[in-house]
């Protein structure tokens, strides 16, 4: 069964999906994730070895950031 939920409705995004949704390169997102993994923003979730990004919390992070 294929998952066809639109990115704008997903709670968690993979780095690749977040790259498409936020128009930020995958390498840049990997750097942001590694820099902010233990920050107060708490937008990074590890699902085994897969890094997931909480879409709404990452949106809040971007709204409070002037540059990335």
Strand order of the largest sheet: 1-3-2
Proportion of β residues? 15-25%
List the helices and strands in order.
EHHEEH
Global structural class: alpha+beta
Look at the structure and give the mean pLDDT: 91
Overall form: globular
Uncertain stretches of 5 or more adjacent residues: none
Offer a quick outline of the entry.
This protein has 68 residues and is of the alpha+beta class. The chain has helices at 15-22, 26-36, 55-63, and strands at 12-14, 44-47, 50-54.
Topology:
Layout (H helix, E strand, L loop, with lengths): L11 E3 H8 L3 H11 L7 E4 L2 E5 H9 L5
Antiparallel strand pairs: 1-3, 2-3
Give the key terms:
68 residues, Molybdopterin biosynthesis moea protein, domain 2, globular, alpha+beta, single chain
Question: Describe it for me?
Answer:
The chain has 68 residues and is of the alpha+beta class. The chain has one domain: Alpha-Beta Complex (Molybdopterin biosynthesis moea protein, domain 2), CATH 3.90.105.50. 41% of the residues lie in helices and 18% in strands. It has three helices and three strands. The chain has helices at residues 15-22, 26-36, 55-63, and strands at 12-14, 44-47, 50-54. It has a three-stranded antiparallel sheet. A hairpin with a 2-residue loop joins strand 2 (44-47) and strand 3. It is globular and about 35 Å long. The termini are far apart.
